[in-house]
Amino acid sequence: MATKHRGVTALDRMRSRLERVDMECSACGYEDDGGRWRSTTDGSRVHYSHICPRCGRVRKRTYTL
Ligand SMILES: [Zn+2]
Q1: Residue 5 has pLDDT above 70, yes or no
Q2: Which of 12, 50, 55, 60 could join 28 in a cystine, given CB atoms 3.0 to 4.6 angstroms apart?
């Protein structure tokens, strides 16, 4: 496996964990099975956001790298 972008690999791993365990909207309870968390990073922290396709609620998670 290519490990050129180790940070990206860590981010992807964290995102896939979110997509396994945290896809239920906290506002309406919708389970977004095919949904994705989007990630952005500023170098020291990574921000994930997920938009509920049913009600539009934006949920956010922030992790320190
Ligand atoms: Zn919702």
Answers
A1: no
A2: 55
Residue 6 Cα to ligand 1 midpoint, Å, equals 33
Contact 49, 60 (CB under 8 A): yes
CA distance 6 to 63: 16
14-54 pLDDT, tens digit each? 899 999 999 999 999 999 999 999 999 998 999 999 999 99
Q: How far is the CA of 36 from the centre of ligand 1 (A)?
A: 14
Compute the distance from residue 64 Cα to the ligand 1 centre, in Å.
Answer: 26
CB 46 within 8 A of CB 11: yes
